[in-house]
Amino acid sequence: MARQVSLRCGWRTRFAPSPTGYLHRGHLAHAVCVWGVARAHGGTIVVRMEDHDRVRCKPEYERALLSDLEWLGLIPDEGLSSLTRHGPSAFRQSDCNNRYASAMEALRARGLVYSCTCSRRDIAAVVGDAEGDEARYPGTCRTRSAAGPGAALRLVLPPDVMRFADVRHGVQQQCPAEQCGDLLIRDRRGQWTYQFAVAVDDLAHDIDVVIRGDDLLPSTGRQLLVRQMLVEGEPSAANRVLLFLHHPVVRHPDGTKLSKAASDTGIAELRRAGMRPEVLLADAAKQIGFTDVGDQLSAGRLGALFSTYCSWFTSDGAPAH
Questions:
Q1: I need a labelling partner for 6 at 20 to 30 A (CA). Which of 87, 94, 266, 290 fits?
Q2: Residues 110/121, Cβ–Cβ less than 8 Å
Q3: How far is CA 300 from the centre of its chain?
């Protein structure tokens, strides 16, 4: 059962797709949850592009994503939109190398960052094939000099147990050092990793509430730990509580997740076929559990829908149990 959790005044959330393909129904279900919760409970929506993967991310995908959001009526309060995407932006990861480099250097100055030349094959040779489970980095390069061309960067993770509130799942507890070992923060191509960049960005954008799919729940603890390490010595930032809502993931009948890599039908393709945005929004709401929305739902009604039928958040006092 969903837990009611209080929200601070003026809280902020984000919709942060990776432009490695076109927006599809799985992304849309996520967007409905973000816009619905924010509009129902007075939050601010920030849109950013998580294009840290410079190999797979393309400008044309970003343009299409922002165009689809506008067509659907999903307009952000801050960040990127079809009108503001031109030129460098603090809401596009590929434009923010200095932000991540500064965060990394601060950690390195404390002796927490080291170079690593291990490949996935090297790691598998030590810890074995994970068979779908996450392989824990064994710390091979932590005590040796591995700097040079092609070296990645890792962050030494302390054995801290991270506890956090998830609105649907209740209190969670994870130990990132046991899950993944020392965290890869920049790969051998010089690209900042998702786990590191998202923690830095959420601090930079003053994010209070993270709304995302259940598939990302296992990595939440490490992002919180990175955040904790980044704000050490800054009481105002350290005392801010980050809340999470991990919602159901839209899947195919066989249980596989919708994917850009699998060429699942994109919203742009459905637009060209004559599908109306209200039909797509209604279908997306049904995918995340709203059964009585009818056949059409406008973006302007999302707040009312979540206010009426979804009591995940309250706006006053301590969390209700």
A1: 290
A2: no
A3: 24
- 182-209 pLDDT, tens digit each: 999 999 999 999 999 999 999 999 999 9
Summarize the chain as % helix, strand, coil (round to 5).
35, 15, 45
Indicate the length of the chain as a whole number.
321
pTM of the model: 0.89
Do 242 and 227 meet the contact criterion of CB atoms below 8 Å apart? yes
For residue 229, give both structure tokens: 């390490």
The DSSP call for residue 250 is P
Convert the pLDDT of each residue in 137-187 to its tens digit.
999 999 877 666 779 999 999 999 999 989 889 999 999 999 999 999 999
| SS3 state at 146 | coil
Q: Which two tokens stand for residue 294?
A: 């009818």
Amino acid identity, position 93: Q
Closest by CA to 144, choosing from 111, 105, 117, is 117
Distance CA 99, CA 317 (A): 35
What lies within 8 Å, CB to CB, of 113 at 6+ separation is: 104, 107, 153, 154, 155, 156, 185
| Angstrom distance (rounded) from CA 137 to CA 160 | 16
Work out the end-to-end distance of the chain between its first and last CA atoms, rounded to an integer number of angstroms.
11
